[in-house]
Write a structure and sequence with these properties.
Elements: H1 15-21, H2 44-55, E1 59-66, E2 69-74, E3 85-86, H3 93-104, H4 133-137, H5 154-157, H6 175-191, H7 201-213, E4 235-236, H8 238-249, E5 253-254, E6 257-258, H9 262-266, E7 283-284, H10 290-295, H11 298-302, E8 317-321, E9 325-330, E10 335-341, E11 365-370
Antiparallel strand pairs: 1-2, 1-10, 2-11, 3-4, 5-6, 7-8, 8-9, 9-10
Helix pairs in contact: 1-2
């Protein structure tokens, strides 16, 4: 059986999800038994190849879910099923779902609400006064993203000036997510009754999304004022991140109950004119032309599939973080894949997460397990 893979952007990025989604390219040299299907997503052989490739590249977890069942998991290089791991920028994709819940609850009127109504500091500014929630979470507000891994406090983020008209430039970075956090914080504060402590941003996310699906998270980094970092603050165990992916795959439903309206959730998976491969806090499997690649150089660094020939499901969406943390979701294939790895440089008071010194080892577990739900 061949364990060689096409060389992919960033060295590994799509390997775990790609192989689980379409095994046939990875096992092109394998002799298939009569009547077998290389695209059978439940085949453990495909998942084991993905696990080997991931483990050899600092991987510490790989979880594959198919139609709500956990069909494969692997925790090499000291990884553990019960250990929360930093998601880095994989955290960003919670914001789209969080915003969808806030719209459903009437905290925002729509994706196209102008944020100046919540941020009076922006009044009189010809550009910032036109920025909508959609602009902010599609990273097309005209505000620079800011330095990667240097997350500003909410109060500092809202002071950011624009460098382009809203909707005209894609700019990746932490600032827009912190601005969203401040908008939501103020909305929640305005909703609180007199004398009542306002619900915090993280508490709202927990009550509206995490608690209803039985999701628990590890630490969540916060700014100097105690507000959660929305661009890169979360740590989740692989199974918990997969649970969130399954919730998204099910269109905001859990145990037959609507948690977030699917229409609002699905709005997160429409790209912008300036970057069709990025929705509202989610990366998308969408065609990107040469002009867009020149205009948005971040695509070559952050988007797994740019420049690759593949037959992946067109509805594939994913959350992506430094160190090649990935959450892949395809409703068409009824598939959720989580891949986590070491190698994240943490320079915010927590030290460095080092590479494993021992050769990659794997303790793969195949077999169908019904996904636990509350």
């Amino acid at each position: 059986m061949s364990s060689s893979f096409p060389r992919r952007q960033l060295g590994l990025v799509a390997a775990a999800g790609y192989l689980a989604i379409r095994g046939q390219q990875a096992i092109a040299a394998e002799e298939e038994a009569p009547g077998s299907s290389a695209a059978d997503l439940s085949r453990a052989a495909h998942h084991k190849l993905a696990a080997q490739y991931s483990a050899a590249r600092q991987g510490i977890s790989l979880v594959v879910m198919l139609d709500g069942n956990r069909v494969f998991e692997d925790y090499p290089n000291g990884g553990r099923a019960d250990r929360a791991h930093e998601l880095a920028s994989g955290t960003k994709s919670f914001s789209g779902v969080l915003a969808a819940a806030a719209i459903a609850d009437g905290l925002f009127a729509s994706w196209d609400e102008k944020l100046v109504a919540t941020l009076p500091e922006w009044q009189g500014d010809p550009r910032r006064s036109q920025i909508t929630l959609r602009h902010l979470l599609s990273l097309t507000s005209g505000i620079p993203g800011g330095a990667i891994a240097r997350v500003p406090a909410y109060t500092d983020a809202i002071a950011s000036e624009t460098v382009a008209e809203p909707g005209e430039r894609f700019a990746y970075g932490p600032a827009p997510f912190q601005i969203f956090g401040e908008c939501l914080r103020r909305k929640l504060a305005a909703k609180a009754k007199d004398g009542e402590k306002p619900e915090g941003v993280l508490e709202y996310l927990e009550r509206r999304v995490f608690d209803p699906i039985g999701l628990t998270h590890g630490f969540w980094r916060k700014d100097k004022d105690g507000n959660p970092h929305l661009p890169s603050g979360a740590a989740l165990a692989a199974r918990e991140w997969a649970k969130f992916g399954e919730f998204v795959r099910l269109g905001g439903m859990w145990d037959g109950k609507e948690i977030v309206p699917q229409k609002l959730l699905d709005d997160c998976f429409t790209g912008s004119r300036v970057n069709p491969a990025y929705g509202l806090s989610w990366w998308l499997n969408r065609p990107v032309d040469a002009a867009t690649l020149r205009r948005v150089p971040m695509l070559r660094r952050a988007q797994d599939l740019v420049g690759e020939k593949h037959d992946l499901a067109p509805d594939l969406v994913f959350a992506a973080g430094a160190g090649n943390q990935r959450l892949y979701i395809s409703r068409q294939l009824k598939l959720v894949v989580v891949r986590q790895a070491t190698g994240i440089l943490v320079n915010r008071g927590m030290g460095r997460v080092t590479r494993p010194s021992a050769p990659a080892t794997s303790s793969a577990c195949a077999g169908t397990q019904t996904f636990p739900r509350r």
